[in-house]
Amino acid sequence: MALSPENSKSPALSRDDAQKEGFMREVDEALREDQALDLIKRWGKPIGAAIFVGLAGLGAWIGWDYYQDQGRAERAESYVKALDQLEAGKLDEASKLLDPLTKGSNDGSQASARMLQAGILAEQGKSNDAAKAFAAIAADSSAPQAYRDLATIRQTALIFDSAAPDKIVAAMKPLAVPGKPWFGSAAELLGMAYLKQGKNDLAGPLFASIARDKTVPDSLRRRARQMAGYLGVDAVDDVNAAVKDVTAANAPQQGQQ
Length: 257
Fold this sequence. Notes:
Elements: H1 11-32, H2 36-56, H3 58-70, H4 73-87, H5 91-98, H6 108-123, H7 127-138, H8 145-159, H9 165-172, H10 183-196, H11 200-212, H12 218-230, H13 239-256
Helix pairs in contact: 1-13, 2-8, 2-10, 3-4, 3-6, 4-5, 5-6, 6-7, 7-8, 9-10, 10-11, 11-12, 12-13
């Protein structure tokens, strides 16, 4: 109910209260409708795609950083040419340029080239081959740990829909630790696996933890805040931002009605 002008002594406070009330109403409705399983269907594939896209260039960035530090001009040149072909959409040509870089040197440059080749397979729709390629990198003890962990996450994102939830949990739990490099992406996959297992009591706090971690990309934090809210866990530090997230999430659905 709206306050009459004479009773509204603190307009700013009233607006905040209204925002909070609106946000909590959205959460309550979601909970009453028991949308946990619907969220898995609604967010599972977009999350997998977002993780894949978001991490796609990361191996390239790490590899380029390595080349700059080591000054290996020849390999760096081949690497840059491969990236140019990727940008132009010439995936086969890019993979061929990367092939020599995947052999010989057991260091970051080799792992980076292998990561990009695996990503190319995924981009070509060869998900099974890509998952195997990422799994091979993850299992390679000679590869830098950062690449192995990243490969584990990308493999898991590719097999998420078909893999048993307990397998996802086992793979992501060691990486879904605050402070670790890939916490946000690993924790998001772990939270979705918990939902598949019906363990909403574990998923909710985990999404809230992602939402509050300022080292996590904003888009991932927004998704996590929404998921935590739907599961009845408060992850709202900024009410205005939370209201905007709920409005943005519901806008497409409202437009379709």
